[in-house]
Design a protein that fits this description.
With 115 residues, chain A is an alpha/beta fold. Chain A is built from four helices and five strands. Chain B is an alpha+beta fold and 151 residues long. Chain B is built from three helices and five strands, in the order βααββαββ. The chains are: A alpha/beta (115), B alpha+beta (151). The interface between B and D is medium-sized, with 31 and 26 residues. Bound molecules: adenosine-5'-diphosphate (2 copies). The site of one adenosine-5'-diphosphate has 14 residues of chain B, from α2 and α3.
Chain lengths: 115, 151, 151, 115
């Protein structure tokens, strides 16, 4: 359909040196590159913690997961704690299938991710 | 990052159970193009009514006949987009002038499809297809309203 | 009232922006067939991963190449349904034996698509197509669980 | 896709001689015949009022509207008051396009329809 896809990151909220990133819409091959680039840019500011709120992401595929893995390894080097929050059932299923649910720190909701 | 418009095609048989699938695809295309919610609803409705008429009138209710649907977004220089929808059947050829909506004041079941299609779309054109059947072209234009600020 | 199974075809170009449209259509087909929610999600994911691989590997990221997708529900005598999904590309022919998932313990970006497809589908078969390109056949079977009581 | 479509009427609730009919899912050419038949069967019991709750109907096309017009004319003959309740935006739009919003008695919600 070849239109500018809507940006994956709808909002970044900052609480001290914690960044909470709101993601919006399906993350697939048409949006994962932009998704990753924006996340890496936020990481460049070296927050102590980065919470990726996936509540508004009904669907993700392996390209989105690959972006998250890339961001995780960069976060580790930068000493940023990366937390995924509010996974929808399909995103949760994807992380289980790829056995990455034990690699990422995952919180049921944003409060828990900030605790 | 705007890429050129690329069409997408669906081939279904004239079975009403395929209508929800076409609606889902059309809805998603409109969403991706950035149409507002009311416009999406009208395009979906217009396409559904056109297909229902093909099934009922061009194929007299036969459920195993082919229908091809093409969805082609056209990006104009002024930034507006027109979604072009082409439907081709291989059924009864029809005199385009015979396809018209009825008087809405005459309240009875039926006879509303053409009226709805005209309301929902900007353009509507029936013409005989080479090799038999009919090509129906419908178009919906709308300005690009994609916000620059993240949504 | 059960009617015979009828396939539905989608033709897209190898543009990632078409993936959401295919997912919407596949999701609706699965819903109509009465698949449970988890199964619907897995079929949608399996199809999306297969298409992403065609775009990335068979077409090396070119966005204007053709991909055809056929969705065919097969009703078995025992009341179960198998959804057969066939995808055809005209890209680089591939040695089916070279397509395999990687070790999941090796944590790095990428290399997950084939593993996901195998997990999501019951059957998966790549074979060279006549005239070039590849045909990928995927199947998902599930028992009919439609309740007799209204839902 | 040619499978038995799910029944259009998910439930009929009776309050004295009032029938409240819950409809579920899109009503299009694949389901409007069954939709109409079931409604006419409920009318045969001659309720004083029949409320058709359309809350769970995201979409309807002209075949569904035709069924409703048919049911309305039968209801008038049977002296049953027919009320449509809880229309979704798209169903409301359809009735407006076809100018049937002035022909049907329409209530914003079920309580109003029962009042
Ligand atoms: N695709 C078509 N092929 C042939 N005739 C058609 C087609 N679509 C509409 N018509 C004609 O136009 C008339 C009006 O159509 P419509 O407004 O949808 O009402 P209805 O389908 O309920 O009759 C139909 O009765 C039919 O004669
Ligand atoms: N449709 C295809 N055509 C050609 N090669 C493919 C295709 N699908 C997968 N492959 C091969 O299989 C490998 C594994 O694919 P996959 O598990 O999806 O991981 P990734 O795409 O991230 O490399 C790919 O790297 C590629 O070499």
């Amino acid at each position: 359909m070849s239109h500018n896809p809507a940006p994956a990151i709808s909002q970044v909220r900052r609480f001290g040196d914690v960044a909470v990133v709101d993601v919006q819409g399906d993350i697939d091959l048409s949006r994962s590159v932009e998704f990753q680039q924006t996340l890496l840019r936020i990481l460049d500011e070296k927050p102590s913690r980065m919470v990726i709120n996936l509540e508004a992401v009904p669907y993700m595929d392996s390209s989105g997961v690959a972006s998250l893995v890339k961001v995780l390894s960069r976060a580790r080097r930068a000493n940023t704690l990366l937390v995924l929050a509010s996974l929808s059932p399909r995103v949760k299923n994807l992380l289980e299938i790829t056995r990455l649910d034990s690699v990422f720190k995952i919180s049921a909701n944003e409060q828990d991710a900030l605790a | 990052m705007t890429s050129p418009a690329q069409p997408l095609r669906l081939s279904i048989s004239s079975n009403p159970s395929h209508l929800p699938v076409v609606r889902a695809a059309v809805e998603k295309v409109c969403e991706i193009l950035g149409f507002d919610c009311d416009t999406v609803g009208n395009v979906v409705l217009g396409v559904d009514e056109a297909l229902a008429n093909i099934i009922k009138h061009a194929y007299h209710g036969r459920q195993d006949q082919p229908i091809e649907i093409e969805l082609a977004p056209l990006h104009d220089a002024d930034g507006s987009i027109e979604l072009l929808i082409r439907m081709r059947d291989h059924g009864l050829e029809v005199d385009p002038s015979s396809i018209k909506g009825r008087d809405l004041d005459d309240i009875r079941p039926g006879g509303l499809g053409v009226h709805i299609m005209k309301h929902c779309m900007d353009r509507l054109e029936y013409r005989p297809a080479e090799g038999g059947g009919t090509i129906l072209t419908m178009a919906k234009r709308f300005p690009t309203v994609r916000k620059e600020i993240g949504r």
